[in-house]
Amino acid sequence: MAALSNCVKRWRTALHITVSASVVALGLAVAPVAHAAAAAATLSVEHAWQTGFIANFTVTNLSTVPLTDWRIDFDMPAGQSVLHTWNSTVTQSGTHYVLTPANWNRTIAPGGSATGGMRGVVIGSFVPPSNCVLNGQYPCT
Q: For position 80, what pLDDT does the model report?
């Protein structure tokens, strides 16, 4: 009976070592998968003059599910401000601005996009918007 007990102990030990080695090997072999961006945004100045500018944006849904309640954050220097927007609403805190969707473009279908723009006022020299990011994670182009 003691011989059987020793045999079972050896098999259990061998099994534990084999399973542990397999788990470690599989864990090291699985590389992290790079995920493609689920969305993209552009914010571009179309026209600028001494006292103002016009900028347009596009938000594109690159995923397979609807994109809802997107937001574009950006900064502008003191002396510049957004006068009004179309196809979005704007909020401001100091020199930081946030564009959010209008009711009619709140949800973007997979592969679809929403467009809009803004008219801004300039005092001094014009500097394009900076630090633009979509949904806090996708830098604008």
A: 97
